[in-house]
Amino acid sequence: EKGEEVTLSQFAGQPVVLNFWYPSCPPCRLEMPDLEQSYQDHKADGVQFLGIQLLGLDSVEDGQVFVEEFGVNYAIGPDSDGRIVRDYGVISFPTTIILTEDQRIGRKWAGVLTLEKLDELIQDVVVE
Q1: Residue 29: exposure state from Cβ atoms within 10 A (0-12, 13-18, ≥19)
Q2: Which residues, in sequence order, are bridge partners of residue 53?
Q3: How far apart are alpha carbons 44 and 102 in whole angstroms?
Q4: Poorest-pLDDT segment among 3-7, 17-21, 59-63, 110-114
Q5: What single-letter DSSP state applies at residue 55?
Q6: pLDDT value for 7
Q7: Do the beta carbons of residue 39 and residue 6 sit within 8 Å?
Q8: 103: left (phi over 0), alpha (psi -120 to 50) or beta
């Protein structure tokens, strides 16, 4: 739901794809359709997707416009205090982290993902 706070503990027991991005980042824009497609492909398997927007260069409103423009259906929200970015040691954007069912980091990928690469990373984590 729009405006609802999301916590990782909601996804305990499920693999989670965390995508760190911000609206004015060209490579982030480039991979967004593939992330959406992967979400559609994997949601039946219980894989959760979460977009985490870096604030500072862009506003929450910029993020909302982006989500609507790209037709993103998975949960996306701002990292309001920058804590999530710090906790996961994200230094470049986009970065995608795939958490295992027990919320350990299974895979970490800095840079643009293609649908194929993302599927491969998800398979690595889900099958382990």
Answers
A1: middle
A2: 21, 78
A3: 19
A4: 3-7
A5: P
A6: 79
A7: no
A8: left
